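User: I've been trying to design a sequence by hand for this structure and keep getting stuck. Would you show me what you'd pick, starting by listing the structure so we're on the same page?

Assistant: Good idea, let's start from the same input. This is the structure you sent:
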């Protein structure tokens, strides 16, 4: 399953605790034990759920559902919709696509009622993303088209860039590479206009992956190298470097440049261990196993 591309755009009001430490979460749990008023417990449950989003979605679901029980007795429609959205994301990560759809779709009418076009467009994009996971691309495009109408009405360049990017990624997976590049290059142009270094580098990486999948090794490596230059100048998290070096290794391995591939994989594994990213570390081992099979 591809990583969710949408959740970071949803972070304005409801997702505020993801960066908390374990110690802070323990303090929140103690506060819940002492708190007697349900309405005061609600933001505590939400914060704990947000903390677990990146490391234990099963626990996140537990706390979002506790928050949901309280919300039913209160007139907080935005909190209700945000909770459905959060649960949809959790189930998407767990690959429970049926429950992901149910929760995302429950958020939609509330956002419509609130006339919250920003969150509504996110919800529609997320639903489209789930449909792409179950290979219902007709539904995917229907929801993406609805989201695009809202995004253009808002004149939200960041949201539009995100939508173009995911459309390109999906067409890449369908091996419709020309169409994929059409969307990814549009997303890249928006990133350039926004002067958003991280987004520019991300789009360069995605374009590089599409060239890799076309077996265009030189072009792919050129885009990965360009992304690395930007990442190195912009205080980028270590796991991002690890992912790019993994892509470089896989590209060299695919082309039979095994010595260069191994050097890139070793670099990626070292960075993945340094950042604590087990997912990227495992991806390296999978790619190296494939490489040694070819050798």
């Amino acid at each position: 399953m591809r990583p969710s591309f949408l959740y970071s755009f949803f972070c304005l009001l409801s997702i505020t605790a993801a960066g908390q430490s374990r110690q802070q979460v323990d303090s929140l749990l103690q506060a819940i034990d002492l708190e007697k008023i349900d309405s005061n417990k609600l933001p505590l449950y939400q914060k704990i759920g947000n903390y677990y989003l990146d490391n234990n979605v099963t626990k996140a679901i537990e706390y979002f559902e506790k928050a949901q029980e309280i919300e039913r007795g209160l007139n907080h429609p935005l909190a209700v919709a945000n909770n459905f959205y959060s649960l949809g994301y959790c189930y998407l990560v767990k690959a429970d696509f049926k429950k992901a759809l149910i929760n995302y779709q429950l958020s939609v009418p509330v956002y419509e009622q609130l006339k919250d076009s920003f969150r509504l467009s996110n919800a529609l994009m997320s639903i489209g993303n789930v449909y792409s996971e179950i290979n219902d691309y007709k539904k995917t495009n229907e929801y993406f088209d609805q989201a695009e109408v809202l995004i253009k009405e808002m004149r939200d360049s960041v949201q539009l860039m995100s939508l173009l990017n995911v459309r390109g990624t999906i067409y890449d997976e369908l091996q419709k590479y020309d169409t994929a590049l059409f969307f990814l290059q549009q997303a890249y142009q928006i990133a350039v206009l926004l002067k958003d270094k991280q987004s520019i580098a991300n789009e360069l990486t995605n374009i590089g992956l599409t060239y890799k999948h076309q077996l265009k090794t030189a072009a792919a490596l050129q885009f990965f190298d360009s992304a690395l230059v930007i990442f190195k100048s912009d205080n980028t998290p270590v796991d991002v470097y690890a992912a790019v070096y993994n892509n470089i290794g896989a590209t060299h391995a695919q082309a039979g440049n095994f010595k260069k591939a191994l050097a890139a994989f070793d670099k990626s594994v070292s960075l993945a261990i340094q950042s604590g990213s087990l997912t990227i570390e495992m991806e390296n081992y999978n790619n190296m196993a494939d490489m040694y099979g070819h050798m």
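That's my pick for every position. To get oriented when you compare it with your attempt: Residues 1-19 have pLDDT under 50 and may be disordered. The radius of gyration is 21 Å.
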